[in-house]
Hints:
Strand order of the largest sheet of chain A: 6-7-8-3-9-10
Oligomer: heterodimer
Helix content of chain A: 40-55%
Largest interface: A-B, 29 and 20 residues
Distance between the termini of chain B: 70 Å
Number of domains of chain B: 5
Shape of chain A: globular
CATH class of the largest domain in chain A: Alpha Beta
Structural class of chain A: alpha/beta
Strand order of the largest sheet of chain B: 2-1-3-10-4
Amino acid sequence: MSARLQAESLYKVFGRRPDQAVERLRAGAGREELRAEGATAAVIDASFTVEPGQIFVVMGLSGSGKSTLLRMLNGLLEPTAGHVRFDGQDLTTLGDRELRAVRSKKISMVFQHFALFPHRSVRENAAYGLEVQGVPRAERVRRADEALALCGLAGWEKSWPDELSGGMQQRVGLARALATDADLLLMDESFSALDPLIRRDMQDQLLELQQKLKKTIVFITHDLNEAMRLGDRIAVMRDGEIVQIGTAQDILLRPENDYVASFTQDVDRSRVLTTGELMDTSVTGDDPGCHCETATADTPFTELCAISARLSHPVSVVDADNKLIGVVPRQRLVGFLGDEQDTTPEPCDSPRDAGGEKVTARA
Amino acid sequence: MPRIQLGTWVNGAVDWLTTHMGWLFDFCKTVFLGLYDGINAVLQAPEPLLLAGIFAVIAFWLRGTLAGVLTFAGFAFIVSLDLWENAMITLTLVLVATVIALVISIPVGIWAARSDRVSGLVRPVLDFMQTLPAMVYLIPAILFFGTGASAGIVATLIFALAPGVRMTELGIRQVDRELVEAADAFGTTPRNILLRVQLPLALPTVMAGVNQVIMLGLSMAAIAGMVGTDGLGGDVNQAIGQLNVGLGAEAGVGIVILAIYLDRMTSALGTQVSPLGRRAAARLRAAQGLKIWSYRPRPAVAVIGVVVLALVSGGMGVFGSAGTGSTAAAGGKDVGQGKKISIGYIPWDEGVASTFLWKEVLEQRGYQVEAKQLDAGPLYTSLAQGDVDFQTDGWLPTTHAQYWKKYGKQLDDLGAWYDKTSLELSVPAYMKDVDSLADLKGKASEFGGKITGIESSAGEMALLKSKVLKEYGLDKEYKVVDSSTPAMLAELKRAYAKKEPIVVTLWSPHWAYNDYKLKKLKDPKGAWGAGDGVHTLARKGFADDDPTVAGWLKKFKMSEKELTSLEAEINKAGKGNQQQAVRAWLKQHPGYVDKLAPVKGGGATPAEAKRPLDVAWFPWDEDIAVTYLWKNVLERRGYKLNLKQMDVGPVYTGLASGDLDLNFDAWLPYAQKNYWDKNKDRLKDLGTWYEPTSLEIAVPSYVKGVDSLADLKGKAGTFDGKIIGIEPGTGEMDLAKNKVLPGYGLDKEYEVVDGSTPAMLAELKRAYAKKEPIAVTLWSPHWAYSDYKLTKLKDPKKAFGEGNTIRTISNEKFPEEYPQLTKWIKNFKMSEDELGSLESEIKNRGQGHEEEAVAAWLKQHPDMVERMTPQ
């Protein structure tokens, strides 16, 4: 996986005199100011790097410029300023013909509304990229069928797109993107149009595939949960600018600003948090001290809760060598869920409560 | 506001285009006509019902059983209305216009879909083309392309282009942007995006556009009829022109049937050609299950069906047999006075030949002849019942013996016109050693053991099989192949071309003996029996009803050479052209008509009638009238007139040089004085036939108190200060403005309004109907005087000048060459009434119907022919 995608201060301005607008943006002019002059800044100074085999998620509300950013990565939109480097080439300097060659061989795309060709069968859809490349028919069919099988659509090759459910249609879209063996997969809100259950399935399947295929993926979404589940790294966009880039935990636990924080407010932390994020590292030692069940730093939050429920004392967290690297008192677990961290409980003024605790404990 | 001279510019542009871009229009015309002729030839060739069958199979394939059945019914209906030929012409017109429209509109639509600028430019042009009244561009279309199919195609094209462009653009623009982006994201080239994504997905909409193009094309068919495009549109026009609502309705229904068929087929085709449509249709079918009314055969089955029918019809086209004839223009010596005669004939070559010969001859003698094709049985029945007046193909005493026995008492035998017929077997002359039937023995292998026969029902075949072959001991060796007369002849033609051995059943007289060198095999044993004579048989009483024709028929004789050459001529001309063939043959046999149908006084056509007369005419009402009158009358006397429309100058020049023979409209001694003076040494004045002519101002007679020009004074209020003029710049207008009005002191009061002769006449008609006062510039002779009660205002001061007389002038030698004709012309006179009524008859019938008008007028003036050309 030599491919490595790098975006260098990309700008995209629609409307009148885009080049001037970029100058003014660089000089610190605001978006609203430009809009008054008839120019719309869709993407402002976006820079990031995607390592091979990574899933890079760009997250933002609609209108934040994420789709525009994505389309600059494969040259469907030409950046007003900045560079896109991929696989050692600066895509922004390529002519139409070379750009088409790159798109047909190295970069493929999956669309929000699937964009399947209704006049082609499932197999013909999956083989579309290969057809454009000029791959001979027999090989085309073979590779398309392989890609379909990979996406769990074996046996549906002769069906027509309108005969499939939404999830299956998007699998065809995915198979079409995978069939060309492109290194870079651009996914534009690919699962947003699916209902929640199917969306989860697709996310799982994508992760599963990614373990096998190790593609470089840029994934656009407006759904933070999806971003957290899929993204090795996540970029949060607002009004055309990238406000934070980091891992899911970074975004969740160390939001760059209030906007990101407000974004993450409703997130189900338990899905993202791992023991390492919430253990009390003030307690360490050579071993856990007892033979009770222990957790590691990677143990997900839900599992940690389960362990904690089975123990009478705080859960010990050990590393690979069984050294104690921290503990998680039950109090802390409950506190994280309630967004109350590092507080000491106040004593109760009524003895009945103490009895009540006992009852709970016995139960 | 300055006057914007748009019209002038357009005129200039049209002139410039006609002179400088002629090559382009000629090229277009060639393309249009090439396409038109090609498609039309294909559509006209097969038997109508077979082609209807092909259409039905296509409908069956595209839409199902019910559509197929209805299609056949619809087209059969057209056939039964006798509109088939015209319907196919219309179909051709629409197809050609559609093909050309699509060739232009689809690329333009694609272009417009891809560029907003082009779209913005194209849209107003399309609006312009769609809303500009058709008449406005029909006239230039005639200037550029002449009348006929190409002008019709252009008019249809202009009208029908717009939906093609619009729907193509719409279809492409409607394709989901995400799909185009997806294609783009996979590196598809713009061309392939168009071909693989946009066009396939736009196809249903584009096909809707095609459908619209066809429908609009059909709706233009009637208008295209106005520029001389034939077809149903022409029928509609003709019918409306004659106020024949019935015929109009028939042609209209024909157009509707075509329209519905084309609409349903193209929309079904739209579903069939687009992948999406096919999917939708397949799902629908799956949902419905199999039903007989919507059952559709697979394409392969449909194609086979079409091909089989096409082959059959192609075959029938090749072996095309004789059919009913067309009516000829009336002319010649009017013995019949339009009396109807019905001839029946059996579709045998000598029957067809003699029947159409008589049809032509009798029509030249003024009869209305109807030729009905019948089988022998029905023919004798019709004769016996008196439905048919006579038939010329009675093979007696042998072949038609059974019919004669049955109906003989109800028939009159007018005698044999051809002796002796014979039945025989024939071989090509290159079969050296086969001369008689006996020679055939032992040669079966050479002939493949086959004798090519005709219809198995024919008497000859029965005779051959049961008697002739046995008599000569050939029945073991040879097999008589039943087929049909056309097939036998085709087989003969084929073998003859390859010089292959062949033996066919034939009979004399037959044109085959004229076209091929054949040997009639001798029949020393007389197995074929004695020959028949070909008799003319008439219904009982025909000879009493029409002794003249019966007399002619009784004397009718034809030699084998004459008959076979006529048959060959008819055979060459093909079905539907029998009468033309007869005419062509008659040309090679001058005097034949008079031999067959001599008219009174033994009056064979005067010797001087042999050369056609070149008569020049001006497009003026009185000249049209008199020229066509002479044409009609002289043709009855066996003359032939070539009419040429020309301007005054060239006519005088042409007459002087001897290129022209006659002109009937010389306004002398004043109006055409300068022409006359220049050429008078080489011209002859054959005398005045109409006088006096005059120029005048006329008012309706209900305008009391206005009798002379002087009376107009002070009445400007009544006439609104206007005198309705004609084309500005004409002599009369100049006279009226410069001499007449000043001469009577009217120039302050009145204005002479420029216009045109038709506009002046329309204005006169309108005012006359409302009894409003009106003053118009007019001249005598004019039909307006016979249609309306008008007062010619007296001109005591002779401001309009002296009257001319209208004379006939000829070239110098004419009186010597045509003494008889010269005498007739010199004695020819017409009264104002006669001329006026003739002019108005011609005007009422409309352009192109002059001959009918003259014929009709002559019927009201029965003495005229005799008066003009006494014998």
